[in-house]
UniProtKB/TrEMBL annotation:
Organism: Sphingopyxis panaciterrulae
Listed PANTHER family: DUF1611 DOMAIN-CONTAINING PROTEIN, GLL3100 PROTEIN
Protein name per its UniProtKB record: Putative NAD-dependent epimerase/dehydratase family protein
Pfam families membership: DUF1611, DUF1611_N
Domain annotation D-glutamate N-acetyltransferase-like C-terminal: ranges: 142-335
Length: 348
């Protein structure tokens, strides 16, 4: 999915297939890594491992670490991206048991596996690997703002964990089906696990966010598209910095606004309402013009997983008329999604 460049870190060589570890997670939005791998790389997943108290499931077979190894798993992937990206002490016995069962450990958390002494000691003793995906390449330059060749599409959102990665992947595959030269550019840990390469933007020091985004999407042929996975939201009280750096550095020609109808508060931020799609569109356009004056909105991607087919179709048709651009759920596909793809590809 990611074309190699001499300026990006080489593609990860992750031991596969995986067993997905959900820990004791009770917030569905925090399990986006597990869901992403299940939905976009199902052939790499042999089952899931949950601890007592977990109420979130990816719907895969429940297995122990030993059973996963017997099914051919080579690594346990922490399928959780919780607030702060921590690996709690309550998980560590299970992680050591996975190492003892013959599995390597893969994580995309801010807290690194390699910083936990008991995991380091167990991995050394057992000859297993601790693989931290959320590690940016070294010597990232500051952004230059230089206009690069090729075309770019960025997914942006009204909040975190509502479909930016899924939308980017769906658009990438739709472009490929149309015979358009394209690459999916992963900017988060789950996308990197799916694609095998990328830059974890939320692990980059703020001063270098734009520069990292420039590395992520280098010069390309004039008719080549980079489909860039968005992060955070421009109005998020905690994560706006990564969103802005990614916007300036990626210099998108087109952006798609991702939104979950019915969500009222930002994930993990009680009291902070979700921003409207209109405000995100206006902010993205205004701020994006700093590095690409020709930036435009291609349409809207709604996450309607909690809605019935009829209700979703009615809402998206109504919102498309109101907003004047295609509104689609990339996971539902159909004519609405094809209209979104066409709008993204159309010239002004």
């Amino acid at each position: 999915m990611n074309a190699p460049t001499d300026r990006m870190a080489s593609a990860l060589l992750l031991p596969q297939p995986y067993v997905l570890f959900l820990g004791d997670t009770t917030v569905r939005g925090y399990a986006k890594t597990a869901f992403g791998l299940r939905d976009w790389a199902p052939e790499k997943c042999v089952g899931e491992l949950r601890l007592p108290g977990a109420t979130v499931t990816a719907g895969l077979d429940a297995v122990t670490a030993a059973e996963a190894r017997a099914r051919g798993a080579r690594a346990l992937v922490i399928g959780v991206a919780n607030q702060g990206g921590v690996i709690p002490a309550s998980w560590r016995v299970s992680l050591i048991e996975a190492l003892e069962a013959g599995l390597d450990l893969i994580a995309g958390m801010h807290m690194r596996l390699s910083d936990i002494p008991e995991l380091v000691e167990a991995a050394r003793r057992l000859g297993r690997q601790l693989i931290d995906v959320r590690v940016p390449p070294r010597q990232i330059p500051v952004g230059t703002g230089r206009k690069r060749s090729g075309k770019r599409l960025l997914t942006v959102g009204t909040d975190c964990a509502l479909g930016k990665k899924y939308t980017a992947l769906a658009l990438f595959r739709a472009f490929e089906r149309r015979g358009i030269a394209a690459d999916f550019r992963a900017s988060g840990q789950t996308g990197i696990m799916i694609a095998g390469g990328g830059i974890p933007m939320d692990a980059v020091v703020s001063d270098f966010e734009a520069g990292a985004a420039e590395l992520l999407s280098p010069d390309a042929d004039a008719d080549h598209w980079d489909i860039i996975e968005g992060q955070g939201a421009l109005t998020h009280p905690a994560y706006a910095a990564v969103s802005l750096g990614l916007l300036h550095g990626s210099q998108p020609d087109v952006f798609v606004v991702c939104h979950e109808p019915g969500r009222t508060e930002m994930l993990g931020m009680p009291g902070f309402p979700v921003t409207s799609v209109e405000e995100i569109t206006e902010l993205t356009t205004r701020l994006g013009r700093r590095t690409n004056p020709a930036i435009r909105c291609g349409g809207y991607a709604f996450n309607t997983a909690a809605m019935t087919d009829d209700a979703a179709a009615e809402l998206m048709a109504k919102e498309s008329r109101r907003l004047g651009l295609p509104v689609a759920d990339p996971m539902r596909g159909g004519p609405a999604f094809e209209a979104l793809v066409a709008s993204c590809l159309s010239a002004d």
